[in-house]
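Translate structure to sequence.
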């Protein structure tokens, strides 16, 4: 591990179509909604939040289509991320339609076309990517394609050879259920930190109680930080929950990317020297900020641009 080194994130970069509606969708006809096109992707969001929360050197490896590569690169650079985007000439950038019900605690449903993100592969990796890196973070979406799984194996092996700790966020309870909990846990062998949501932790452990799930997972992975939404986070090590970290109270507008915000801030805090409990508290604060915004990215240090976004968000 390189003291004071960089954070390298490997994962998905996608275009989010966020549709905020109120109440049930009207099947077979129109439902009024406020719709915005914003940059997203769990991996990209984590990188941006880590930079926003104080990590000075954040790098991202992702794969995008040629049609939007320049836009995504500009957006990442503007957020303080050093982007290494592989341009795919055969597949478009992934697209996620985020249906956000403003009348139901801003809960969201995703329609996902992973596009070029699913084609990230070992050939896109180089051991030199770890030069100067203190932590490697992997998006769980990588595990939902054969090429992504192969990349995870290569990246984890490379990081372990250099003594670089590895974290991973399972990313999607829906895709995780299809992959299978046993298969997932086999694939993440060698990971030091697991950052599941409540649903993901329960699915992986095969239990309904989130605290018991986090504790059980920490028997296999050294540190488990289970995100609990409005209930904060659980920090588990050695088969037991060691801390319950509360989240700030907030009125949600869009929960898209809240878990990514938590993860980015958590990793930035660890790189800054914080312990797991303090880092989890930073993650909770970032998650609270994220749910008050539309889209999965942090605010920019540009008051004019922020004012325009607030006006368009309504």
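Result:
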């Amino acid at each position: 591990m390189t003291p004071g080194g960089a954070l390298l994130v490997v994962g998905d970069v996608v275009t989010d179509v966020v549709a905020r509606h109120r109440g049930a969708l009207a099947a077979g006809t129109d439902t009024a909604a406020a719709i915005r096109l914003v940059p997203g992707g769990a991996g990209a969001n984590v990188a941006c939040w880590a930079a926003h929360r104080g990590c000075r050197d954040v790098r991202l490896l992702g794969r995008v289509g040629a049609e939007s590569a320049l836009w995504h690169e500009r957006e990442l650079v503007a957020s303080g991320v050093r982007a290494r985007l592989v341009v795919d000439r055969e597949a478009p950038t992934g697209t996620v339609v985020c249906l956000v019900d403003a009348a139901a605690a801003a809960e969201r449903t995703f329609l996902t076309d992973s596009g070029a993100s699913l084609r990230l592969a070992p050939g896109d990796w180089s051991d030199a990517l770890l030069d100067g890196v203190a932590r490697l973070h992997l998006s769980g979406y990588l595990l939902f394609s054969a090429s992504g799984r192969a990349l995870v194996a290569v990246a984890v092996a490379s990081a372990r050879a250099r003594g670089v700790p590895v974290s991973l966020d399972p990313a999607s309870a829906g895709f995780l259920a299809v992959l299978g909990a046993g298969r997932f846990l086999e694939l993440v062998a060698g990971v030091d930190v697991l950052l599941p949501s409540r649903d993901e932790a329960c699915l992986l452990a095969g239990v309904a109680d989130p605290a018991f799930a986090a504790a059980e997972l920490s028997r296999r992975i050294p540190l488990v930080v289970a995100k609990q939404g409005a209930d904060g986070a659980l920090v588990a090590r050695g088969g037991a929950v060691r801390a319950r970290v509360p989240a700030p109270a907030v009125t949600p507008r869009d929960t898209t990317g809240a878990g990514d915000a938590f993860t980015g801030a958590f990793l930035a805090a660890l790189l800054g020297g914080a312990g797991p409990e303090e880092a989890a508290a930073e993650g909770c604060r970032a998650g609270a900020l994220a749910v008050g915004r539309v889209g999965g990215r942090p605010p920019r240090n540009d008051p004019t641009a922020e004012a325009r976004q607030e006006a368009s968000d309504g």
